[in-house]
User: Fold these one by one.
Assistant:
Number 1:
Amino acid sequence: MTLTASQLHGFSQGIASGEVSNAQIAAFTMAVYFQDLSIQERVDWTNAVKSSGFTIDWSDMSIPGPILDKHSTGGIGDGVSLMLAPMLAACGAYIPMIAGRGLAHTGGTIDKLESFPGYNTGVSIDEFKNVVRDVGYSIIRQTDELAPTDSRVYSVRDVTATVESIGLITASIISKKLAAGINSLVLDVKTGNGAVMQSLEDSRTLAKSLVDVSNGAGVKTSALITDMSQPLSFNAGNSLEILESIEFLKGGKSHPRLSECVYALGSQALVDSGLYEKLDQAATALKNSISSGLALEKFAQMVDRMGGDTAVIENTDLLPQANIIKPVYADRTGYVNSFDLRAIGMSIVSLGGGRTIPGQAINHSVGLQNIVQAGSRVTPLKSSQPLCFIHASTEKDCEEAERKIIESISIDSDPCKFVPLFHEIVK
């Protein structure tokens, strides 16, 4: 049986109004999980979820450039949005980014931004639009006004073991992007042991679904499939990733994989939006946004308009600071070969940097700093390079995280084979 657009729209409206019970939602999600949805049904369901709430209209704002967005399926040390959004704004794009909180072992952009004292991720839609128009971008959390069906369906998916349904993941991600009123979208679909989809085949299937549905709904979309089998940046944890983002925007030291990811996604976004014809031209413009200081200026303007303390940008010691900072050394001599990123992510959760139940308060100061890169030679000697520095609130938390990290990083006698960041692009 094929579900019609009208049927899906009616069901979505019933979910948003409360007429449809959680039991009925559970039956629907399980049916989709086992029977799946066709591409047309995914497009229709995604549009139905979007239409359950408010869709942002930019026609009254006189926006002089393309309206676009970027989305990542998440990983460890994935703070790309924090750097890329102001860079894109400095290149003439407008980015209304509706981001999420941390989920399971992965960090969330909203949690990271709330490390800034005073930053309000819950401003009104009108203020959100004003900041995007005036600054070029803004990042807020999902509100009850946007795609409310998704919030109810997601909570049911979590308890019915249907979180990994491709059709439901697609609708959840794309519906919120459509509700933001964007013209184009670039997706970063992760693959590897730190990703939601761990095999390349599954990641490719998800990327194709996201691209097909988003394009089918009228938004020009590309997806880059990128590796998440090793950390994407030096730091993992909310305030620590803000620290790294500020350093990046100032043109300082940056993780090679993080830089590669930022510039590739940004270049694709600028070409898809029509601002540039070629990827190398777009990459040059992005680099100039850093060297000119304009991207950092956009970042400061956005933080200020969202109520955040911009003094943090000049003095990062104003970010939340952990009580304990301790180096972790290898238990043997050799080369870092691989990471169990899911376990590393859960070690940050156990430190208090993530949630084990919805709505739980988190500690923005905890996490891992200066994480060793794959291929590095390490030893147990205290004079050698640590595996990382743990930022913790208690000695007990620190000891537990240290044990998990040592277990999660594989050390071999020979250097590892290089794992490329990019696998392929889906259009």
Number 2:
Amino acid sequence: MKKYRFEYFASCPSGLEDLLAKELNDLGAKLTVPVRGGVQFESFHEVALKAVLMSRLASRIFKFLYQFEVLNENDYYLQATDIKWKSLMDVTHTFRLTTIFGDLPFAREEFRNSQFANLKLKDAVVDYFRHHEGERPSVEKDFPDVSFLARIDRGTEKPYLATIMYDLCGDPLNQRGYRVSNTEAPVKENVAAGILKLVNWNPETEDLLDGMCGSGTFVIEAALMAGSIAPSYLKVEKHLNNPEYKPWTFLNYPWLTKDEHLLENFKIILKEITTSTQSGLEKLKSQKSRIWGNDLSEMNLYSAKENVRKAKLDQVIELTQVDARVINPNKNKTLFICNPPYGERLEYGEDEKLKSLYKGLGDHWKHNFKGHRAAIFTGNLEMLKVVGLKTTKRHILFNGDIECRLAEYSLY
């Protein structure tokens, strides 16, 4: 059985792997290897904690724990009972297990399904504690103290390879804590941050206008980037004010709590985030009107205002209610970004109305945004043809399960 020390995996939306690898390198990670759906990397534990608190692009961070090959479900159970689970959690902790299958093209006769494999692993954990502690921990699906991920892949010497990992996060990292009001089909926060990086938006040289801001995700993520504010800043503040509030599951792990040096470094990271948040907000307030959002829907605008207020950016981000096809840029060079309706939203309805919207955006940019840039993120691939402008770049991204396109335009 292989025991890991400094190996991790950061998951992310498909299409952002290379950007995430660079972000992790900037945070101090080593040997970053982009794979589909994330990045494998090695780092000191402090860097992994920084990744959880500071990554704008990651969905989750996992710490590799153990890996072993197995013949079947029963062998899986037996080997899992050999793991020293009490070094990974206390018997008083609630825990959650999630099992996924990798690419297994051959018949899975020995492993019926991921749910049954999950049950076998749960039995191993429970039976271990019953044997060594005389009592068992409880399973908690929604808000566990400790969360594990198990992955079953094809083995080398035996048919299957099992990998056990810590989930360091709890809630997904895209849930920053500022979204208190939703619109229909909002862009995930880490997808929005990734889009801004893909189009190379530079807040020092370019204003940002979200012409259809919905719940305000693009403008909020842009402001956090412009102020160099960690995406976890709201959770950090709440945790420091109330240590009983534990927004990340790693706060319960013996891996952290029994390592005084790591605990001290974690406190330093929290202090750094608090200090940079304060200076970042002050910087943004002095640059008001550089980031602005707009939406024609009064309900969407209400959602955006609520979220911007929760993010403490209401003195930074301007929000207006007007048709995106008539709003003009400021005198500064501007990136017009938008996530138009895909066709599901009732206020636009039929194809003809959608075509009118997309064509109207293209015509408006062509006549009124010369010298500026634009970008559309959409799940309706046919509508990009209606815009009527030549794209400078296209990117394939996923927002949840929806395959989308990000199209960039340089306007002359």
